[in-house]
Design brief:
With 90 residues, this protein is mainly alpha-helical. It has five helices and two strands. A hairpin with a 4-residue loop joins β1 and β2.
Amino acid sequence: MNLIHEHWDRFGPEVVNWAIGIAWRESNCRPDVASPTGCYSIFQMALPLHKGIYAAAGYPDWYAARYDARASVAAAALLYASSGSSPWRL
C-alpha cells in the first residue's frame, strides 16, 4: 500500500482509496499476476498498449518491468492522470 500512496496521494484520499480497491480487484495487489488478454501486474495494465505510459514513468523496457510493482503503480498513476478511471471500468 505504501507504493500506492507514494504515487497516488497527489490525487487526494478518495482517489487513493479507489486505487487501492482497483489494485485488490485487478490482482489482489500482486505484481506477478498476468491475464490471458495481456494485462500485467498490480493494476493489470494492458501491454504493450500502455508501453508509452511505462516509459513516461521511467520504465522504457515495459517487458522487463511488466511484473515490477513500482513500475505498475507509477504507470497506473500516470494513466489515471491522463485518462481518469476509464481504463479500469467494468
